Amino acid sequence: MTRTPHTHPEPTPRWCSCAAPDDEVETTTSGLSRRNLLVGASAAGVLAAAGWPGAAQAAPGDDSVTITIMGTSDLHANAVNWDYYKDAAYSDSAGNAIGLARVSSVVNHVRAERGREHTLLFDAGDTIQGSPLGFYYALVDPVTESGAVHPIAAQMNAIGYDAVALGNHEFNYGLDFLDYWIDQMDADVLAANAVHAGTKVPAYTPYVIKTMKVPGRPPIRVGVLGLTNPGVVIWDKANVSGRIEVQDLVETAARWVPVMRRAGAHVVVVSAHSGDNGRSSYTGDLPVENAAALVAEQVPGIDAILFGHAHVDVPQRIVKNLATGRDVVLSEPKNWGQRLSVFDLTVEYAKGKWSVTSGSSTTVNTNAVVDDPALVAVVRAQHDAVVSYVNTPVAVSTEAMSAAEACWKDTAILDYVNAVQTATVAAAVAGTPEAALPIVSIAAPFNRAATFPAGQVTIKDVAGLYIYDNTLLASILTGAEIKDYLEYSAKYFAVVAPDAPVAPATWTNAGNTPDYNYDQFSGVEYGVDISQPVGSRIVGLSFEGAPVAADQQFLVAVNNYRQSGGGGFPHIQGAPVVYNAQVAIREAIVSYASAAGAIDPADFHVENWQLVRNGTPVF
User: Fold this and answer.
1) Which SUPFAM superfamilies match (predicted)?
2) Same-domain status, 45 and 86
């Protein structure tokens, strides 16, 4: 099967040949040799330790076979079990492990337990962005310029993935970069609902059908449909506007599942980069962001759904299809390679065809094995280059700074982000009419563990502070709009009585609002009264000692995710854009620090906002 290049405005849909029997793609074993990493341990024992009860290869009855679908999601360019921000093996309080090398060891054991001929391996997206390894080979030493194989493509090829769906973060580095990565992948890369703008023609392969040989019977044909997230058109507007549109997941599945069945798929699996709660983080007319359960419920003919995007561990969820009454089994593996979803589907041969009679799923914890050394070797040189890069010194800090309290206090380390953004925008608009406007800047506490040590600050310290590959823009907002924006941001806090004990860590993330959606402004002064209801919390909003007028205009430094509508903040998406040079904020911080040579909070830290209760400061 070939992918239709998205660069063609109205391409001949070569992928249509996927419906033809001659285009079946047989599952083959990867040529990479691998050894059992746990000496003396059986595959079944390893899997049991990892939380998978296992199953026999043959289901009851001569005409039944159990096939196994494995799945990952939200790998976010984690190749090995390594934390580049700490310069050490990854560890967390739950004892999790990360990385494709760790996933490979579990996959090897499942294949050994079940038989390679009875297994397939899929991914549900967000694979190439999210770690220093990802940004290094996209922005620092781009593989598109060096001609190197992307480390995640190299590992996925070595493991032997059968199909990979596109996630929203695949679009972060632009369509040309995405094309380059897809061309390096042995697996089919799928996104049925990512279409050429103004058409219904998929810009990428919509589905693929794999075959599993069964002795004495016709092969079992397993179709997998790939679906990406509609939020792409918001979050990566600059990269896809006028080129790619993303259609509703339910409507797209309803269109393509019958096509797959007519093409001979006995089993239909959906790999969707979409959560399962039926809600969206954005507003407006865009299709539902987290629609996996809706797809299962509303589209007949689906047997299983591998989903992702939410970064949670969902071993099994059963959803009954409204039209057929049949159960659809869903699973989401925890992000970064911490879990592998494993679906067991019983397929029965009757009346000349195969069909699924039952299904179950679970997730396997990758901390029960160690990194596959063959997969580590695949990326060793690239990993070492990134380790060397992130340990490069950029400046000297006069004191230690931490983001540990940045979610409830105005901290110096977050003010540094705002200082860099403000300086970058000021330099860009110098000599223009907008230069007369006061500049304010928006930043959010992305990582509570971020620190700048006293003394030498390295790139990994900066990367730990600014963990997303956002770019910088500047828009114009009025005073009234800034107040609305701040009121919306303040929903991050629970309502706290004026006399309640001071316990700020228990006040945050109200309504499951993530830290990255708590925006803080520099350049204006204000209080957040958490004793008041949401919508009536911003007090004392002022600029240079005077109350901010409703019609007063400000130039606002903001990242592309927020300006494009990410998080659903008011006014910013429709605000006039004055500056958009596609400057990566993390790299801007590194450059700014390197040019200055020193980081001194006395130069930029201003405590311009605070939490209050009934007018009294909390701290």
Assistant:
1) 5'-nucleotidase (syn. UDP-sugar hydrolase), C-terminal domain, Metallo-dependent phosphatases
2) yes
For residues 376 and 398, state if they share a domain.
no
Where is 377: in which H helix or E strand?
helix 373-390
Is the pLDDT at 26 greater than 50? The verdict is: no
Contact predicate 249/309, CB 8 Å: no
What is the C-alpha separation between 499 and 496, in angstroms, rounded?
8
pLDDT at 52: 56
Residue labelled with tokens 């990582």? 447
Beta strands in 384-470 (DSSP E): 393-397, 401-402, 439-443, 451-452, 455-458
pTM of the model: 0.81
Structure tokens at 298: 């509303």
CATH code of the domain covering residue 431: 3.90.780.10
Question: Which residue type sits at 207?
Answer: Y
DSSP 3-state of 508: coil
Tell me the two tokens of residue 455.
């003394």
Is 72 within a domain? yes
**Residue 9 belongs to some domain of the structure:** no
Write the DSSP assignment of 78-145 as a string of letters: --SSEETTTTEE---TT----SHHHHHHHHHHHHHHH-GGGEEEEE-S--SSSSHHHHIIIIIS-HHH
Q: What is the C-alpha separation between 494 and 496, in angstroms, rounded?
A: 6
How does DSSP classify residue 615? T
Asked if 444 and 302 sit in the same domain, the reply is no
**Distance between CA atoms of residues 433 and 263, nearest Å:** 60
Within this chain, do residues 61 and 201 fall inside the same structural domain, yes or no? yes
Q: β-pairing, 207-214 with 25-26? A: parallel
Instruction: Specify whether the CB–CB gap between 258 and 305 falls below 8 A.
Output: no
CA-CA-CA-CA torsion sign (94, 99, 104, 107): positive
| Pick from 45-49, 210-214, 409-413, 456-460: least confident | 45-49
Residue 552 DSSP code? -
pLDDT digits (tens, 9 = 90+) for 495-513: 999 999 999 999 999 999 9
Q: Indicate the number of domains in the chain.
A: 2
Beta-carbon contacts of 534 under 8 Å, excluding residues fewer than 6 positions away, are 487, 490, 491, 495
Is it the case that residue 51 has pLDDT exceeding 90?
A: no
- Kindly state whether residues 336 and 437 are assigned to the same domain: no
Measured from the Cβ of residue 407, the count of other Cβ atoms closer than 10 Å reads 21
Could you give the CA distance from residue 468 to residue 445 in angstroms, rounded to a whole number?
A: 11
Taking only the tens place, the pLDDT of each residue in 296-332 is: 999 999 999 999 999 999 999 999 999 999 999 999 9
Q: Tell me the HSE value of 469 on the side-chain side, using a 13 A CA sphere.
A: 24
Is residue 337 pLDDT above 90, yes or no? yes
Output b/e per residue, 182-198; b: 16+ Cβ within 10 A.
Answer: bebbebbbbbbbbbbee
Q: Is 232 helix (H, G, I), strand (E, B) or coil?
A: helix
CA 332/CA 362 separation, integer angstroms: 9
Alpha helices in 544-614 (DSSP H): 560-563, 585-596
